[in-house]
Amino acid sequence: MNPIARKLFRNLNYQELLPGEKRTFRLHLGYTVFDNFVAGVLTLNEFVFLRSLHGSSYQLSFLFQFSVLVFIFLIFFSEWLKRVRNKQKLIRWVGIATRAPLAILLFFPRSAEAMSGTSVYHYIFLLLFLIYYLGNPIIFPTINLFLKSNYRHDNFGRLYSLATLYGKILMLITAFVYGILLDYDPYAYTWVFALAATAGVISVMMLSSIHYTEAAEVIPKGGFFSSVKESVLGMRRIMKNNTPFRHFEMGFLFYGFAFMSTVTVMTIFFEKQLGLNYFSVATYKNAYNIIALFLIPFFGRVLGKIDPRKFAAFTFASIMFYLLSLVLTYYFPQHTEIGSFRLFYSMIPFVLFHSVFAATMSLLWSIGSAYFCKPHQAGEYQSVHLFLTATRAVFAPLLGVLFYEMYGFVFTFSIGAASLLIAIVIMFWSYRRERV
Prior knowledge:
The protein folds into two domains: 1-221, Growth Hormone, Chain: A; 231-436, Growth Hormone, Chain: A. It is 75% helix and 2% strand. It has helices spanning 3-9, 19-42, 45-51, 57-69, 74-82, 87-99, 112-115, 120-134, 136-148, 153-184, 189-208, 224-241, 243-273, 278-303, 308-331, 347-367, 378-392, 396-407, 409-433; strands at 335-338, 341-344.
């Protein structure tokens, strides 16, 4: 057992768990493992679309955009979910409807000619992933709902963290092996996605098997659209009355633009400027994710001691420096070959800064908004945060590709870094002006 897992189990005796907790943990762990197999495959998804399917830059921006844009419907989905009594049956069918279609990729042609130009297969690929991501605003909110009704409060954090840890380890292994497969066969994605479709359906089936009974009084009695209107007005009220939170989201606006406008261009940079193969991309991504796993406990303690706006400024600085590392790599592309892995010396600081970003943003994204409200308001504040994130996804990825097409990599990454600098200034200005 690795050191992190030992630490999580230090104060947890599995034999002392209640029978319901043991059953829930087995299903939770199974769901997490299968779901993270899919996540490991998706780690290289944009690079696959660019390198194996020969998709265009703008099409690539849509592929990323879909993963975030779907949360703009969160208000409607959350109100609908409140009215569904049998949530297990709902997510079971949603899982089948959104995960199973990925198996269609098994029938994609295995030739560059079929993928050249504006191939219809590009649009089918994008449609399949739009369908896939549409399931997330329904499935994700039910996870904590099911787990919190089965885990005791003292065990929730450790059991959740342990399942997440093993899931992340599998995700890293999957991405690594998948990268090797794709270098051997660029069309391996066809049958790998068929496996991912199967794993995705199994994961949701296991999640839906967790026991959960909806209390009758919890189901809203009012009209659907009146509840949606109340949610919208509630969001507006939060942004108007809670000044520190409004400043927090202003900073996230500039961060979100920087991140979303550069993430797609970064994939293009890896392929067109650096000429990386699949194994190299998987290695760089795994490197910063592995380091992030060890940094998360430390930064978790830091976040509990300082204002989230100061923590956010530190997080934004880490992504600003990894973007500047890419600019440095553009001008100084010296590298060495280690087998099939191409190590760029300027990419070493990129990995280090990206690992800090991955560790800190995973915490800030999940619980940062909760610091600005009372415990019972945390869900409402996080919904505001997710909705605003989705609205940024409407324009930021496309603008990033537009900047790249017109002015190149350096300009795009520099605009992102400048936007992050503004976000950092906003966070420090807000902290000095409005204390929580």
